[in-house]
Amino acid sequence: MKIMVSVLFACASLFVFSQSEENLIDIFYDQESGLHGLENTVTHEQILPPTYQNIFSFSEGLAAVYLDDKYGYIDVIGNIVIPLTNAYILADYFYNGLAKVIENNGSEEGGKCGFIDKTGTLVVPFKYDHASSFQGGMATILITTPEGDKWGKINTKGVEIIPCRYEYELHFSDGAAVFAENELQGVIDTTGKVIVEPVYPFIADFSEGLAMIQGPEGFGFIDNTGNFVIPANYEDAFSFSEGLAGVSKDGKWGFIDRTGQVRIDFRFDNIFEFSEGLAAVSNGFLNESDEYDGLWGFINKEGNLVIPMEFESPSNFEDGKCTLIKDGVYCTINKQGIIIEMENSGEDVDMVY
Is residue 225 part of a domain? Predict the structure, then answer.
C-alpha cells in the first residue's frame, strides 16, 4: 500500500511536501517497503518506484534523496544526477544553482558547511560553522572564533564579498545591511563598503527603503546611502510598514509617511505597526502593580478607529484575521472586529504593553 507523503522527518526538521506547480510531481510513501517514490500528480502514473528512505522537495529541478546514511540528488523523472555519498550528513535545497551540504566528520552533528553545484562538485569548501542558502546571489556565513561568532557573506563563486568579521548576522534589504561593532551600529552595502559609520546605539533593518535609527537627539530615518530622510527628533519609532511608520512625540504616538509628514495625529499611548491596512492602538499605561491598564482597538490609515478599544494582547492581522483576548478569553476577529473564533484557555493571560 502507498500513501501520499505530507510530512517527513529528517535532521530534526519537519519538511512539508506539496504538489509541484512546475513539474506536477508528488512524493509518495510505500508502507510495505518503507520507501518513497515519485508519481504524476494528475495521472498518478508512477515515475519512480519506492526507492529512497526520504525524498525532499524539488528545487531548481533537483531533489535531495536519502538512503542508508547517504545523500544524493535526483531529477524530476527520478534519474540520479548527483550520486549518493556518505560525505554529507545533510544535503539542502538548491538556490541560485548551489546547495548547502554539511560534511560527515563522524560526529552526530557533523562538521563544517560547504556548497555543491548541480554536478556535485564542491565549489565552496567545508570551512564554515554555519551557512544559509543563497538568496539574491549571496549566502550568510559564520565562523566561530575564540572572540565569538563572526558573520559575513559569500557570492555564488565562494568569494567572501563581506569577510567574517561582524558580530551579528547581516540582513540585506534595498542593498544595505546593519552591522554592529563595539556595541555600536552602522550600515554597509553589498560590497562591504561602510556607508554609515558604527556610531549609533541602534539601527533597525531597512524596511520599505528606510531604516529607523537612534541618533543623539532621538529617532529618525535614513535611506540606503546613509542620508537622513527624516530627522532624528522623535522620542521613539517603529520601522515603516505599508507606507507608514509609528513615531512618538511628547509621550503620544502617531504615524508619519516616507516624507516625514504626519498622517495620523499623536494621540495614542501605544501602537502596533500597520498590517493589512489596520494598526492596533491603545490608551493606557502600566499601573502601580506593573500591569497594563488599557484596552486595544484598531485604526485605518486615515486614523479612524474602526474596531473599538475592547481587546487585550492583540497581534497583527494576517489573512484577514487577528488573534487577541477579550474578557480573558482567547479569540480571533476579522477586519470588521467581529469575533469569528473563541477559545477559553483556562489560564492567566499576560498583557501586552
Answer: no
| Cross-sheet strand order for the sheet of 148-155 | 130-131, 138-145, 148-155, 162-166
Q: Alpha-carbon distance 153 to 138, whole Å?
A: 6
Predicted confidence (pLDDT) at residue 162 exceeds the cutoff of 50: yes
**Distance between CA 189 and CA 201 in Å, rounded?**
19
- Please, which pLDDT band fits residue 287 given cuts at 50, 70 and 90? low
Contacts of 211 (CB under 8 A, 6+ apart): 176, 178, 187, 203, 204, 205, 221, 222, 223, 224, 239
Alpha carbon separation from 34 to 2, 75, 126, 169 (Å, rounded):
9, 21, 33, 40
Q: What residues have CB less than 8 Å from 329, skipping those under 6 apart?
A: 342, 343, 344, 345
Q: Are residues 31 and 98 located together in one domain of the fold?
A: no
| Domain membership of residue 48 as a residue range | 1-85
User: C-alpha angle 155/159/165, rounded to 5°?
Assistant: 95
Domain boundary among 170, 189, 215: 170
* Residue-level pLDDT at 288: 65
Torsional sign, CA 177, 180, 185, 187: negative
C-alpha cell at 85: 555519498
- 283, 348: one domain: yes
- Give residue 177's identity as a one-letter amino acid code: A
pLDDT in tens, 32-62: 999 999 999 999 999 999 999 999 999 999 9
Residue 120 lies in a domain: yes
Task: Tell me which of 105, 137, 170 is where a domain ends.
Answer: 170
* Same domain flag for 277 and 347: yes
CB 298 within 8 A of CB 270: no
Q: Are residues 61 and 103 in the same domain?
A: no
- Are residues 349 and 276 part of one domain? yes
Is 261 contained in some domain? no
* pLDDT over 70 (residue 30): yes
pTM of the model: 0.72
Question: What is the arrangement of strands in the sheet containing 228-234, beginning at the earlier edge strand?
Answer: 202-203, 211-215, 218-222, 228-234
Residues 6+ apart with CB under 8 A from 339: 326, 331, 332, 333
Report the candidate in 348, 347, 346, 313 with the shortest Cα–Cα distance to residue 332: 313
Q: What is the DSSP letter of 201?
A: S
